[in-house]
From TrEMBL:
Enzyme nomenclature, EC number: 4.1.1.1
Protein family membership: Belongs to the TPP enzyme family.
One Gene Ontology term of the molecular function aspect: pyruvate decarboxylase activity
Thiamine pyrophosphate enzyme TPP-binding domain ranges (all copies): 393-535
Cofactor note: Binds 1 Mg(2+) per subunit.
Keyword DNA-binding: no
Protein name from the UniProt record: Alpha-keto-acid decarboxylase
Function, in words: Decarboxylates branched-chain and aromatic alpha-keto acids to aldehydes.
Highest taxon above the source species: Bacteria
Length: 551
């Protein structure tokens, strides 16, 4: 036994080895000693958050750029507040570590056998663990120092292998107990493919790629989650085939590339994208997740589309099980298929719209205007709202420059996720968040953390006074008729820009393009705190590519 290693130190050492530099936390008496004695003196910086769901969203945003994120909470009252954030990370394959400071063995046994309760207890030692078993790929309870290294290593290896959250219960009386020191470095488990399924899948796909006159590649989110950007780009260039993405995978590859056409998300797509998808005689969907967000009023043609995702290939009636996406791409590349000759649709020239400084901002007008400020140094994060539609058609030139939680779609995600994104991004990058007013009301305290740590996201709150996307989903005809909004969709109005005085950052309220110009100019100059820009738009104004459902 190494006298210099304890359970608390072991966990720190493993997290540092995996590249963690920041830990999001909420102080709690069951976790405070580990935070104070082990995390504080380490190279991992504690980011003290204001609530558990914001901490979870921040860790999620951080992990999407860094490859791992972590938050530390306290038992039940804290951990159960983070359930929604962990669930979102599970759905979207984000490697997140939830460390739950947990009552001692003595307190647990006393409660279970006498009924004398410690605060935060619900029904004994299994409550939190069982809650998280369904939304993590590993849930462990560290209640023995000799088993701690194996339990921690197993959970963390699952996290980096599956790219999904894990849950670690760290009992308060385990933290200072001695254990074996870390051995070696943790690595993801090997990816495995069934040789027969892989060979058959490669053969079928290559045959269609060779025979197709107008093939198309649809790049999905798994290309990002499994770090396959370079291999996917090599395949696209080798085949000389145009490619599209989905909203969840927008800007995974450079949108400046000559073969990129746009985002394929049903009827919200541009005309060039829908025309290309319709006229293509074979579509290779690499890592695409089918959701109702990327099939808006439209369904893929399954007879001409080969879906390679979730470790399988589905093409018409063919199913190839246990086919890793990386192995499939490598197999197709090895066949060296002759490149195609195909004329791509011309991309429309982008330029700032001609608007008067006193003109009232519309939803679509805002997105037409903001395009000029998005360059290779910009990371865009769009929240679950009508902003999905507006941001979908933006040009985001830098690979990895767009972050969205569009599969799970928890409103209020993007603004607190920006806390983690700001800490994980490159120094030359700037974060812009587009959120609805309803979503922002849920997580507005993120401004406190961002101000405290001198982070500088620019948060645009589109203020129309309603949960517009919920109304759109329920009855979109309201937006072009003299009909009232559903009462549950109407918000209590906030003066969002004035929150800057509460939290100590910068704020603007704008309703015209002249005011918006001044606000963006000021926000770009503000490098030491978040900037909140309250963008007033008419309540029935929606993006142009959302109007197909209003007819």
């Amino acid at each position: 036994m190494n006298d210099g290693c304890t359970v608390g130190q072991y966990l720190i050492d493993r997290l540092r080895q995996l590249g963690l530099e920041h830990l999001f936390s909420i102080a709690g008496d069951y976790s405070i000693e580990w935070l104070n004695r082990y995390v504080t003196p380490s190279s991992i910086e504690i980011i003290e958050e204001v609530n558990e769901v914001n901490a979870g969203y921040a860790a999620d945003g951080y992990a999407r750029l860094k490859g791992i994120g972590a938050l530390c909470v306290t038992y039940s009252a804290g951990a159960l507040c983070a359930v929604n954030a962990v669930a979102g990370a599970y759905v979207e394959k984000v490697p997140l570590v939830l460390i739950n400071g947990t009552p001692s063995i003595k307190k647990t046994i006393t409660f279970e056998q006498t009924g004398f309760s410690a605060h935060h207890f619900i029904s004994g030692r299994e409550t939190d663990l069982q809650s998280f078993e369904h939304i993590t790929v590993a849930a462990v309870r560290v209640d023995n120092p000799d088993l701690a290294p194996a339990l921690i290593d197993y959970a963390l290896t699952q996290c980096i292998s599956e790219r999904r959250p894990i849950y670690i219960e760290l009992l308060q009386d385990m933290v200072d107990l001695q254990c074996e020191p870390p051995r070696g470095v943790l690595k993801p488990a090997r990816i495995l493919s069934d040789e027969t399924s892989l060979e058959q899948s490669v053969e079928r796909i290559c045959a269609r790629l060779e025979s197709a006159e107008n093939p198309l590649i649809w790049v999905g989110v798994e290309i990002d989650r499994f770090g396959l950007q370079e291999k996917a780009m090599s395949l696209i260039q080798q085949l000389n085939i145009p490619f599209v993405t989905e909203l969840l995978s927008k800007a995974v590859l450079s949108e400046d590339d000559a073969l990129f056409v746009g985002v394929l998300d049903g009827q919200a797509s541009s005309a060039a994208v829908t025309d290309l998808a319709t006229t293509s005689d074979f579509v290779l969907a690499l890592g695409v997740w089918l959701t109702d967000i990327n099939s808006l009023g439209w369904e893929p043609d399954y007879d001409k589309t080969a879906f390679a995702s979730f470790d399988a290939v589905k093409f018409g009636t063919y199913f190839g099980g246990q086919v890793a996406l990386e192995h499939l791409i490598e197999g197709i590349l090895a066949q060296k298929i002759a490149p195609k000759v195909r004329k791509l649709p011309e991309k429309p020239a982008r330029k700032a719209p001609t608007v008067g400084s006193s003109d009232v901002i519309t939803y679509q007008g805002f997105y037409n205007f903001i395009q000029q400020y998005i360059d290779r140094k910009t990371i865009v994060s769009s929240d679950a709202s009508m902003n999905y539609f507006g941001s979908l058609l933006l040009d985001v030139p830098r690979p990895g420059g767009f972050i969205v939680q569009s599969s799970y779609s928890s409103i209020g995600y993007s603004a607190p996720a920006a806390t983690g994104i700001c800490l994980a991004k490159s120094p030359d990058q700037r974060v812009m968040v587009f959120t609805g007013d309803g979503g922002f009301q849920m997580t507005a305290q993120c401004l406190s953390t961002q101000t405290r740590f001198k982070l500088n996201p620019i948060i645009f709150v589109i203020d129309n006074g309603v949960y517009a996307v919920e109304q759109w989903l329920a009855d979109a005809s309201v937006f072009h008729a003299d009909k009232p909004f559903y009462k549950p969709c109407v918000l209590h109005r906030w003066n969002y820009s004035m929150l800057s005085e509460v939290f100590g950052c910068r704020g603007w309220e704008v309703g015209t393009y002249g005011e918006l110009t001044d606000a963006v100019t000021g926000a770009l100059k503000n490098s030491n705190s978040p900037s909140i820009i309250q963008v007033r738009v008419p309540d029935k104004s929606i993006p142009e590519n959302a109007k197909w459902k209003t007819q």
